[in-house]
Design a protein that fits this description.
Blueprint lengths: L42 H12 L3 H33 L4 H50 L2 H5 L3 H43 L1 H7 L3 H38 L1 H6 L3 H53 L5 H42 L21 E11 L2 E11 L4 E5 L6 H8 L7 E6 L2 E2 L5 H7 E5 L9 H6 L7 H10 L3 H5 L18 H15 L3 E5 L7 H15 L3 E5 L11 E6 L2 E6 L1 H7 L2 H10 L10
Parallel strand pairs: 3-8, 3-9, 6-7, 7-8
Antiparallel strand pairs: 1-2, 1-4, 4-5, 9-10
Helix pairs in contact: 1-10, 2-3, 2-5, 2-10, 3-5, 3-10, 5-6, 5-7, 5-10, 7-9, 7-10, 9-10, 14-16, 16-17
Amino acid sequence: MIDPRASKSGFYSGSRQPGRPMGGIGGHGPHQMPGPISKPKDTRKTVKQLWVYLKDHRGTLLFIFISVLLSSILNLVGPYFIGKAIDDYIIPGDFNGLMRMALMLISIYILVSLFTYIQNRLMIQVAQKTVFHLREDLFSRLQYLPIKYFDQHLHGDLMSRLTNDIDLISNALSSSIVQVFTSIITLIGTVIMMLWLSPLLTAVSLTVIPLVFLFTRMIASRTRESFLRQQSQLGDLNGLIEENISGQKVVKIFNREKQEIEEFEKQNTALKGIAIRAQIYSGILPPLMNLLNNFGFAVVAGVGGYMAIRQIITIGVIASFITYSRHFARPLNELANQFNIIQSGLSSAERVFDVMNEPPETADSPDVAETWDIRGEVEFREVSFSYKPEEPVLKNISFHIFPGQTVAIVGPTGAGKTTIVNLLTRFYDVESGKIFIDGIDIRDIKRSALRSLLGIVLQDTYLFAESVRDNIRYGRLDASDQEIQDVARLANAEQFIRHLPNGYDTILTEDGSDLSQGQRQLIAISRVLLANPSILILDEATSSIDTRTEKYVQKAMLNLMKGRTSLVIAHRLSTIRNADLILVINQGEIVEQGNHQQLLDKKGFYYNLYMSQFNSKSIQTLEV
């Protein structure tokens, strides 16, 4: 079944081409504008937002922290007892005492392993539950973002944030938090034990710390920026791949395989270069830390040996101290090794929260209308709109559609026809002027109620990779099988559906590519019929099908239009001869209006458009 969280009204039967800007429903719209992230954002803000998801697991995290604390303390006790064993049992030759100490050490390290297993298991559960809710919230946010946001962002990049970035966050949470806790506690505990055993040797050991912080600080900013750029470039590459797969027919028709491969190689090479730099920066720290720690270890061994010769400290203390110096080096190395994962996880979290921080569609007013006695009257009153500043698409458009009327909109490409639909559906809001339905400003109507009034059939119909039955049921999710068959019969779709391998239960390929354009349109019309809208919008619904199939589709559309207010955006002027009113738009303005015969008699703009299509002597081939 199709996800019930999707729009329940089913008003939208069309499609935007995946991975490509669509400008609302189609036609004129803004260009895509995303670019690579050039600098890191606010880490503190990202961590704060991530904590919102983690704080629901505060009890479990507290238990994990206690487990980490206990295992770290036990680990710190071990080296001390090793030194005691040397001084108290090995040098004096006390075999029984040595066995007791050995059994104690075995018990300690068994408990350490048990606590480590518990904390890792619990942290994995916390991480998976956290990203589960994070993934759900991100997907939900995408459902409520305005169409404008999708027009301006690569769809492949958004997919990358929902998949790759979420996985990187999960990896960072499950592997890094426990490790960071353990390393910090071990580091602090080790310093305490080292000071207790020998302040002088401790001072010698800590000489490497300023160097560690210096190099870490130098490398940190470059590593973080490189990982941000890597994730951004990966999103761009995913967008290219998704577009290429979706547009394979176009690629092959125009023999652009070579160019597509070259473009992929270009972006893939860019990703390789960025990824190499990111990994090089992140890989510098571990060997550098090892070098510094080994240097410190050699100094401690030399000074400690000298002190033992002078009988300032015992051999056991030296053995314990050398072990602690290793303990001191290990958490530093582990922190360096986790730095890569932490940086990648934070960069991914930033990208995810970038989307989640985007404002959704403007909220409905508290006193908006939801239901009333729908008549289907539509009025545009001095409406102006532009996708970009100083580039108006509509200029003071005004017209009135009475209940049950069929009104057609014609005009050249880019004249603003589809923008009228985008504004009526509130995919975009008007900049000036007002739009009314039944005398109510559409901004005073709840969006879900407004869109449930509208049924839209587009030129390019989108079908899901589900059964034919489920694709029709998308118009109304609680519809029965009998209702689905009734609307398919009314839309003239049942005949071809019956001939499919499994009838209504036939699973379609993505976007219904295994059906003809006309068959996809008939399913789309069935879907809108099932939604039973009060106002119908046909956006060039027959422009991409052949003349014979058009007859079946037009018959289905006539059934669909009965008793409904209809707004028809026409490509073929022959399909709108019987419209009650025809609006002719050019450069964002209504230049003519009237019925078909009245406009022909005027011999104006509409007449020229009409004659360019039907007069074989005309050399004018304007696209409408």
